[in-house]
Each structure stands twice: as C-alpha cells, then as structure tokens.
Design goal:
The protein has 197 residues and is an alpha+beta fold. The protein has two domains: 96 residues, Alpha-Beta Plaits, CATH 3.30.70; 93 residues, Alpha-Beta Plaits, CATH 3.30.70.
Amino acid sequence: MATQKSSNASFAEVVFEGKPKVVRSFLHGLMLGSGLKSKIYFSWDEGIDHGGKAPRFAEKFGLPGTDVHVIVDSATNALLKKHIKLIGPDHGLRIVSQRRIRSAKMEMKFVAYAPKYDQEIMDFLKKLPAGVKMRGFNHEIRKDSDAKGVEAYSAVHHFEAHGEGTITGPVDVLVDYKRRSQAHPLIEVGEIKISHS
C-alpha cells in the first residue's frame, strides 16, 4: 500500500454500528491478522465531518445509537467487504455502509499582526503536499502607520494580514496537512468534508 499513489478513489468511508472501542479493537485485530499496512482514520480523531458536532461527540464517547465513521484504504475496505457476513450483532458491531470517497476539502484561515508571521504562514502555504491544491485563496494586508507602537495596548494594529481559502486533495494527505496546520498557532483549519462517489 505504501507504494501506491494516494488518491481519494483509494479510500472509503465505512460506517459501523457499535461502540467506538469495539470498532477500534476490531480494526486493529483485522490489520494484525491480515498483515495489511492499513491506513485507517477515525472521524472523531481527525476532525472529519459527518453531520455536525453532536453526532461526533456521541460517537467519540460511545453514547447509545451511535454510528462510528471510519476512513479506510481500498485494501482494508475490500477485506471488510469480503468478510462482511462474519461481522454481525454477535460481535458487538455491524457495518451500516461502505462508500468510496470522491473528494475531500477543508477551509483554512489565518490572521497575522506582524510581517514576519505573515511571511512564515505564506511560506508554509506555498509548500503544499503533492496532490493538494489551494482554491479561492484570498490574502489581504492592511497597514495603519498611525497605530505603530500601540499594538500591545490596543485593538488597532499597524500591520494586519488576513488569509483564507479552501484546501482540496486526497483525504489521507489532508488529514496529515490538517495536523501540521493545527501545530501553527495562527492558522485555523475547519473540519475535513468528504463527498462520496
């Protein structure tokens, strides 16, 4: 799997009915037993949207009636399809749906109050991973020479840069890019939104 080029077509969203711990344990056992080097992402861990914050909160904490949404690579999805009849209520979980992912995207924005931070963020955004694109990027810089020297004590700043756009690409690459973006204190990223084939 590591040699395969990443694309949304090689991932699927699998929805399980069951407790999150049971689903996690089942998938971990499946990976160990099959010898696959699977790529598996739990929606609640990675901020992948599937219906708002309330369902994700319920899913994360295993509240009753919760579906567990998991993104899996194509090899793991094929293995699940092959053994779907063996997975049932007797095991504490069942598969509700398996849908291929067509596209993935997330919104990002930032505000910087010094040129060096603006440049740092712009340099970070210029180094998008292969297969990832920035769409509709808007970058504005405002300067107010009258405010110079009082920024620490005022809501007015002599330099203010705003940027926002939509990042699109393979879901696994977006998950990694989201993690790296969140490590920067001035960059805000939204949930990853996926569309199905």
